[in-house]
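For reproducibility, we list the full input for the zinc ion complex.
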Amino acid sequence: MRTKQMMNTLGQRVSWKKYWKIFTLQDFPNVCPFCGLPMSEDEVEGCHIKVKGRLTGELSTKEYIIPGHHECNMQSERPFSAKITLYAVEAIER
Ligand SMILES: [Zn+2]
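The corresponding predicted structure, in tokenized form, follows.
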């Protein structure tokens, strides 16, 4: 599990989950983008993903954060197609 913490603009430590919310200004989706099953806010984990280029088919070198189930995050080394449309936030470590 990724337990790394991020700093927000105020220099406070925030989770990847919060980081996604701060940058997207969105609520978490109530469906997991990995499995398409219902997901409550308590179940949400900030998942690191890489994005496949639409034209190149190449995986991005940058990592992005999306909300998803913890169990689904554990399988995130496998390729997947998002079941829902949602924002991915670039993961920037400081
Ligand atoms: Zn899931």
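Residues 52 and 58 are 5 Å apart (CA to CA). The beta strands are 6-7, 13-14, 44-49, 64-69, 89-90. Both points were considered when choosing residues for closer inspection.
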